[in-house]
C-alpha cells in the first residue's frame, strides 16, 4: 500500500509543528519552503487539520498555526485515516468487476489494509520524534524566534 503525497505532506507538517518551541507558530510559507511543497497543498492540509481540531489557526498579523494537541495524543493510524481520501486498495464497482460475486481478493486486501492501520495505530506523533528531535530541528533549520 502506498500513501498519497497529501498524507505524506500532512505528516511532515505535523512533525514540523511538533518540533516548534512552545508558543511559536508556523506559516504556510514556512512549511512550503521547508519541504518544497506547493503553498496550495500546505493550505489544504492546514485547513483539514484545523477543521479536525488537530491544529489551531489564526489569520492576520501575528497569525499562523500550531499543534492544538500534544504529539503523544496524535495517533499515526488515525492521522492516516483522516488524511487519506480512501484506503480502498482495489475498486471493484467502477467499472463493475465481472468476478466480484466470487472474488476473495477484495476481502484479503481489506484484511491487509486493516493490519497496516493496526500497525500504524501502535505509534503516535511523539514516537516519530523520539531520540531524533534535535537532529530534526537542525535538519529543518527550525528557529526558536
Automatic annotation (TrEMBL):
One Pfam family from the record: Rrf2
UniProt GO molecular function: DNA binding; DNA-binding transcription factor activity
Keyword DNA-binding: yes
Keyword tags: DNA-binding
Keyword Ligase: no
GO cellular component, one term: cytosol
InterPro entries noted in UniProt: TR_Rrf2-type_CS, Tscrpt_reg_Rrf2, WH-like_DNA-bd_sf, WH_DNA-bd_sf
Gene3D superfamilies attached to this UniProt entry: Winged helix-like DNA-binding domain superfamily/Winged helix DNA-binding domain
The protein, known as: Rrf2 family transcriptional regulator, nitric oxide-sensitive transcriptional repressor
Organism: Paraglaciecola arctica BSs20135
Lineage of the species this protein comes from: Bacteria, Pseudomonadati, Pseudomonadota, Gammaproteobacteria, Alteromonadales
Underlying gene: nsrR
